[in-house]
Q: What sequence folds into this?
């Protein structure tokens, strides 16, 4: 299906010059900080960096000796699977609906994309207000329905809260890509299926969804990365990792230890672990999940 | 607003240019702080007062966000070589500031080089002790200090048939009062802010027992937590039981409980004495202040409570005349009248006995009953166990305490298991800090 286009440059330096800005950005904002993190993770320093000592893998040893750190892997897995699964399916559903709307489509789309402009910390606070045990609108409604909502002490409630906030924040992004994907499917294919007598449900599963798999795959990778590294502000604003450590996902601890507690060595070691997990996950996704993608 | 300021600045400049005596521009120093809202205005007032009092020096206050944020900003600025002259650091950061070598200039050194007499003994012992090194050298300048008290809603007390003029003094009395409040239909009889500070740190000092070994970390970096004693277990167990019965309702970490008291939702809470201003402004009922409750059968209780709040640190690597400016500013802040005014304005405790005296003589405590409770809790001779807490990685330890206590309140862990988990995890942090700063 794919058509490869090859552009040939006469001069040897022009291609390099053209990609140089992008390379510079990648080096300055990705490779350099990643290298710094690797370096920091084998050091032990006081907060001000006045004394610094090479300690080898000790920061990692301390980390894995901490049961609560190991437990937060499970928390992170639960959180990321929930956010990615719910986020992707809800936005796919919304995109399919929006694709069918004829009148006022722009208004719907704009409203759907809106949440993407909201900063994660604001999203966290927003949902926190709605679910605040004593004053929140939602918790009030839940109480009238006979459910005692208290995310301050109930871990499942707290997890629900941050999953909702993280999903809501990401739906706009997913929606945008799904909608674009749906609109790029040739109308003739869908119409042909309709003429053959396939109903909307069947048309979706046999024609549209298979053609959407590249988009879905891309979004899966992006969503996993989002959940792993971009959600600490939501957790910080909504639960601070509590109750206990029930919502303390890996990246939240990186943020807390590094920026609130000033333990740069420990925090760097955690981000190296996180980096390893993300690389592994992305490799797995490309090796195994991508096989099922039709381009 | 902007135009007005600009006009003022221009006219000030013009005045400056026209006066021949003003040949030299004042030495300017930066002061980073974390006081917002009404407290921010107070800071602005102090800087203005100092700048108006003389012409040689000028202090410029800069708001740098919350305590942890300005702490992080200071660390980053120091690493980059452009730290401010003075920075306000919260009490939890004290050990980190002290342990970092060559980062700060001790108060008495600042004063000595400037040739200004400075007497640390005028400060309230529980305040000065918090910021004094084991060798007796005062390292940071005591600034805003509060302590742990019991706030209670007098109207709710009346409605429950309790005496509104008598705050419960002991923990058994708190439980009884909470039961009566609950019987009268109150949904949140008792809660607490800053659970580590009120229920473990100040609790320990108040009962004259150590919160951590090595005199709470004052005499060595090898301090370890000491919170698994029968007294600590008994107290946390007591609170856990109250939580199960709906007498104690947990309202979140840090000062989340403040709002629930100010809205009238909770009838009693242990929290900072500095919440007084907010309560006075927001609570649509009469509020009272009682001393932090204690267990009457514990010998030596009540001793004194520990402070919270912040102190001012002078950062190293500045020019000599700038340190003179810092010294002059410290001297201005040491003035008893300035301190008395600060105390009355903010609800922070007076940090010198003289400021307390001035406030008392002015009749302030009679007009504002309860505001002296925090003072009387603090103006006492401290013991080696009650002087204060000085632990490294304290931010992490407080988070650990929050995490484990939440499990106890939820009924997932027993008080003993929770406290033991705190000790185990907290000691790892202390060990890490000891190793990082042993050099």
A:
């Amino acid at each position: 299906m794919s058509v490869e286009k090859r552009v040939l440059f006469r001069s040897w330096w022009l291609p390099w010059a053209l990609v140089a800005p992008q390379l510079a950005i990648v080096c300055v904002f990705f490779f350099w900080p990643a290298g710094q993190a690797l370096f920091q993770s084998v050091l032990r320093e006081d907060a001000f960096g006045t004394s610094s000592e090479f300690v080898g893998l000790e920061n990692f040893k301390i980390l894995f000796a901490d049961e609560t750190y190991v437990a937060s892997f499970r928390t992170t897995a639960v959180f990321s699977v929930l956010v990615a699964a719910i986020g992707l399916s809800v936005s796919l559903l919304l995109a399919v609906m929006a694709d069918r709307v004829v009148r006022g489509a722009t208004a719907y789309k704009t409203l759907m994309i809106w949440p993407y402009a909201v900063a994660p910390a604001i999203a966290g606070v927003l949902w926190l207000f709605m679910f605040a045990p004593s004053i929140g609108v939602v918790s009030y409604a839940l109480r009238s329905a006979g459910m005692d909502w208290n995310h301050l002490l109930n871990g499942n409630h707290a997890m629900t809260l941050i999953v909702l906030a993280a999903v809501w924040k990401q739906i706009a992004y997913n929606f945008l890509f799904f909608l674009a994907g749906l609109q790029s499917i040739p109308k003739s294919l869908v119409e042909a299926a309709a003429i053959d007598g396939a109903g909307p449900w069947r048309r979706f599963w046999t024609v549209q969804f298979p053609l959407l798999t590249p988009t879905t795959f891309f979004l899966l990778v992006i969503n996993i990365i989002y959940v792993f590294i971009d959600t600490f502000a939501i957790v910080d604003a909504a639960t601070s990792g509590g109750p206990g450590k029930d919502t303390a996902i890996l990246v939240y601890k990186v943020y807390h230890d590094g920026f609130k507690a000033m333990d740069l060595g420990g925090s760097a070691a955690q981000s190296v672990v996180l980096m390893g997990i993300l690389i592994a996950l992305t490799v797995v996704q490309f090796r195994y999940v991508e096989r099922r993608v039709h381009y | 607003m902007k135009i007005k300021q600009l006009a003022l600045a221009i006219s000030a400049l013009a005045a400056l240019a026209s006066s021949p005596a003003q040949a030299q521009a004042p030495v300017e120093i930066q002061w980073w702080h974390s006081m917002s809202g009404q407290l921010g205005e107070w800071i602005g007032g102090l800087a203005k007062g100092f700048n108006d009092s003389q012409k040689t020096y000028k202090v410029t206050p800069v708001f740098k966000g919350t305590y942890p944020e300005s702490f992080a900003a200071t660390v980053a600025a120091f690493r980059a070589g452009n730290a401010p002259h003075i920075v306000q650091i919260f009490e939890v950061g004290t050990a980190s500031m002290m342990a970092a070598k060559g980062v700060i200039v001790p108060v008495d050194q600042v004063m000595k080089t400037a040739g200004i007499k400075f007497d640390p003994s005028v400060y309230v012992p529980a305040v000065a002790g918090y910021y004094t090194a084991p060798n007796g050298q005062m390292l940071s300048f005591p600034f805003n200090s509060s302590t742990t008290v019991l706030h209670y809603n007098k109207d709710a007390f009346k409605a429950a048939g309790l005496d509104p003029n008598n705050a419960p003094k002991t923990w058994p009395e708190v439980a009884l009062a909470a039961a009566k409040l609950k019987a009268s239909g109150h949904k949140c009889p008792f809660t607490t802010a800053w659970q580590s500070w009120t229920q473990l740190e100040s609790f320990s000092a108040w009962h004259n027992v150590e919160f951590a070994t090595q005199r709470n970390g004052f005499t060595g970096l090898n301090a370890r937590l000491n919170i698994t004693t029968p007294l600590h277990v008994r107290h946390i167990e007591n609170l856990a039981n109250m939580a199960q019965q709906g007498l104690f309702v947990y309202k979140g970490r840090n000062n989340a409980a403040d709002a629930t008291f100010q809205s009238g939702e909770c009838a009693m809470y242990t929290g900072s004495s500095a919440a007084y201003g907010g309560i006075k402004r927001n609570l649509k009922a009469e509020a009272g202040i009682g001393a932090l409750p204690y267990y009457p059968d514990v010998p030596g209780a009540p001793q004194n409570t520990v402070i919270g709040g912040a102190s001012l640190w002078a950062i190293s690597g500045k020019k000599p005349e700038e340190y003179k400016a810092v010294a002059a500013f410290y001297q201005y802040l040491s003035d008893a009248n300035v301190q008395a005014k600060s105390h009355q304005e903010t609800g922070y405790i007076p940090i010198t006995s003289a400021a307390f005296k001035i406030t008392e003589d002015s009749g302030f405590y009679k007009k504002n009953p309860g505001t002296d409770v925090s003072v009387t809790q603090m103006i006492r001779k401290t013991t080696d166990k009650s002087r204060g807490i000085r632990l490294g990685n304290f931010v992490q330890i407080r988070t650990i305490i929050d995490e484990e206590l939440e499990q106890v309140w939820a009924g997932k862990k027993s008080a003993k298991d929770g406290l033991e988990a705190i000790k185990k995890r907290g000691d790892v942090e202390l060990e890490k800090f000891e190793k990082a700063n042993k050099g």
About this structure: The longest strand of chain B covers residues 141-153. Residues 13-22 of chain B have pLDDT under 50 and may be disordered. Chain B touches chain A through 39 residues (CB under 8 Å). Strands of chain B lie at 27-33, 57-63, 86-90, 104-105, 141-153, 188-192, 266-272, 287-291, 307-315.
